[in-house]
Structures are given as C-alpha cells and as structure tokens.
Specification:
Length: 438
C-alpha cells in the first residue's frame, strides 16, 4: 500500500466492522443499526458522500447529517481549511475529507467508495474564469482560447451526470441531486437552461435518482436579501431590472436541508455500500420496514421522486427591495434600468473574480420562479415541513446593515414585542404590507 493510500485509509471514518443490531431511532424513517448515545454521539449506520458541502445549502445539509450520527465523506477540491468549519458538526470519527477533482474519475470513486448515498449540491451562480485565455489542453492561447474555467454546462450538466454514472456503477443505493426550480429548457438564462439539462442527464444515468428543485434560497448566508443590503450600504441607489415585476417564491435553506434529510432517511441503505467492484445487479432485498430495495437502485417510497420546494409566499423583485430597505432603514431608492443598459453594467462588473452582478443574473431577474400550484412533484407540504417565512428570520441577519446595528432604535431587540408584523406600530413590517403575518 502506497503512503498516500495508507493516509486516505487512515482518514476514513471509523465504522463498525459488522452491522449492529437494529434499534429504535430518533427519527421515524431512520435506518436500522443505529447505536450510541443518540444525536451527534451516535452511529446511525448510514454512510453518505457529499459533493458541494461547503456551499450555502451544503453546510445546512451536512449539519443535519451530523445531528443523526451519520458517517459522512466530504469531497473537497481545495485547501483543507475550506472544510474545517464543518468539523464541529460531527462527533470524532464521523466525518472524513477526501480530496478530489471533478475532472478526475478515480478521485471521485475514492470519495464515493463505501457510501450508501451520494448527495450532489455542486453549483455556482456565475462561470468561473482564468486570468488569461487558454486552449482546452491548458496552453496559453490569447486568440482562440477561453477564459472560462468552470462554465454552466460543465458544472450543471457534465459533473452531475458523471457523479450519477459513477454512483450507479459502484452500486450506490441512492443518488440525490440538487437542481433548481427555475430549470427550463427555454429559459433565457444559461444557468436555468443548464440546470434543466443537468437534471435530464442525471435521470438518464441514474433513473432512480431523487431530484430536488428548490426556489431561490434565503437564510443567513443568502444572496437574495444580503445582496440588496450590500448594495444599499455601498451605492447611492440600487439597480433594478425595469419595473422589478419578476416573481420569486423564496424558500428557507433549512427547510430544503430538512427535505433532503428526509430523502436520506427514506428506506434501507445499510446493506448497500458502494464499491468499485460492485456494478449494480438487480438483486432485491427487503428491509425491516417491508420496503423493497435494489442493490443498485434507490430504496423507499421516494424512489425516482422529484421535489419542488418553495416558500409559502411569492413576491416581486420590487417588493423584496422595498422590504430590505424598510428593514435596514437604508432607504436607498431602486433605479429601474432597461435590460440592455443593466447588462452593460453587469458585463463591466463581471471582470472581477467574484462579480457582484453578471449578465446571466440579469436574465434570471426577468424570470418568474414560483411553484405551480398544480404540480405533481413532492412539495414541503407533502413532507410535513412548515415553510419558514421570510419575516421570521430576516431581521436576524439584515439588521447588520443598519448604521446602528441592533440598537439604532430604542426598542432594540424587542421592536415588535406584543405587535403583529403588520400592526401600525411595528418597526419591522411584512415583506408585503397587505399580507398578514401569522
């Protein structure tokens, strides 16, 4: 065994050599074989490989996995410091880091090896760029080369398809892929189009995969509301696409994480660990719940399901801007801009490594991304998850944009104590004043 292979083996989470006896879980649909003191200090018997764990949604999903004593292998493309904030979410031995490249199949297999479930949350709101244009083989080519490093098609189509294919070949029991509610083959946005074709590619490679399609996420680290606050604190006015009539139906990131966890809890997994030697037979097994499961297919009632997850209310982009302005007391005006002019501004902003606005985001601003009330997909309601409303937590992370933080108002933390969000005396009003907060 080489030194590097020995180090990787030593870094893998400690799991029982044999499956322990079944016990009663803290969760109704948890896997059999859980042991320990419960919570983070338990061993659920479930092993999950997570790609995209360091992103906005990823850290919430990983935290929930840690709460149930799940053994997790996190794929990491960069420095080990990028994942150190995830370590406190797990008890000792329940989390391992595997360095990989999405362009190296063997490193992907090492990350998936020994896991029952694979969760893919890899994504980027913009296409990453290199400093200088290069050819496909990496040679400097200022004439025909491209500055694109990871484009939307590679991130949202090629990589998910590759992960699904390798997972299927290795006998992974369940593949969970996070797409987008905005996914549409005819969308103006390249991001939304690529998300659609990525979901189709995953279905082709792993037909039993669970596809999770969230609307725009909100939460402490979000872009939807924090971007408005950042722009309001730095600019004299906030740019808005035309009249700001595009609709959004934001969903709380924690609700999406809960939905994904319910997918991992669904059905038997402890029998079906991935292996480079396992090539997906059709053999069937029956677990203690009486649910049929395939060695190379997702077990449980959500096999092959599509989840469409959105919040309880939809708002126009203009309403979102007015809400943030009211909450932060910045009172910066929204400036309606024609699409062509706003795209010129976005093109200029996109030259920096992490652009504050891109041309593709301008296209997304013009899309209506809301949940179809007649959808046949699984929703938060179907999963018995009450959607957290924007007004319930927005103040917790937007107050920092106020010039005086928490204490700019004499009521301090208790601005709305004893008042409804839409009462005349309330300091923090609902995102849409004519919609009562319950």
């Amino acid at each position: 065994m080489s030194l590097m292979r020995g180090l990787r083996a030593a870094a893998r989470p400690l799991v029982p050599a044999t499956a322990p006896a079944a016990s009663i879980s803290n969760y109704a649909n948890s896997v059999s074989g859980e042991q320990g003191h419960g919570g983070r200090s338990s061993i659920s018997g479930l092993k999950v490989a997570v790609f995209g764990a360091t992103g906005f949604l990823g850290r919430y999903v990983v935290n929930e996995l840690g709460k149930t004593g799940t053994t997790v292998t996190i794929g990491n493309r960069g420095c080990e410091m990028e994942t150190r904030h995830l370590r406190p979410m797990f008890d000792l031995g329940n989390m391992a880091i595997e360095f990989y490249s999405t362009r190296d199949d063997d490193s992907i297999r090492r990350t998936i090896e020994g896991c029952d479930i694979v969760i893919n949350m890899i994504g980027k709101r913009y296409e990453t760029r290199k400093l200088l244009p290069t050819s496909p083989d990496g040679a400097l080519d200022p004439i025909k080369g491209s500055r694109i490093n990871f484009g939307f098609d590679e991130v949202n189509i090629d990589i998910p398809a590759k992960l699904a294919k390798i997972s299927k070949e290795m006998g992974v029991d369940k593949f969970i892929h996070v797409g987008a509610l905005s996914a549409d083959p005819d969308a103006k946005s390249h991001f939304s189009r690529s998300k659609y074709f990525g979901e189709e590619a995953v279905r082709k490679e792993f037909p039993e995969a669970v596809i999770v399609k969230p609307a725009e996420l909100f939460g402490h680290e979000d872009r939807l509301f924090n971007w408005q606050g950042e722009m309001g604190s730095r600019l004299p006015a906030i740019p808005m696409l035309e009249d700001g009539s595009g609709l959004v139906q934001p969903v709380y990131v924690g609700d999406v994480a809960d939905a994904i966890i319910k997918m991992t809890d669904d059905g038997p997994h402890a029998h079906h660990t991935a292996s480079v030697d396992k090539m997906g037979s059709d053999e069937e097994e029956e677990d203690i719940f009486g649910i049929k499961a395939h060695v190379a297919g997702s077990g449980g009632k959500f096999k092959g399901a599509t989840l469409e997850l959105a919040g309880s209310d939809d708002f126009t982009r203009r309403e979102v801007m007015d809400f943030v302005s009211d909450l932060t007391s910045l009172n910066k005006p929204a400036v309606p801009m024609p699409e062509a002019i706003l795209k010129v501004v976005a093109s200029a902003a996109a030259v920096v490594p992490e652009p504050w606005l891109t041309v593709d985001e301008v296209d997304r601003w013009g899309e209506n991304v809301t949940l179809d009330p007649e959808t046949d997909a699984v929703t938060l309601e179907d999963l018995d998850i009450r959607p957290v409303r924007v007004e319930e937590i927005a103040f917790q992370y937007l107050h920092r944009f106020r010039k005086g933080g928490h204490f700019v108002l004499h009521e301090g933390y208790h601005a709305n104590e004893g008042k409804g969000f839409n009462d005349p005396g309330a300091k923090v009003r609902s995102i849409a004043g004519n919609r009562p907060f319950v």
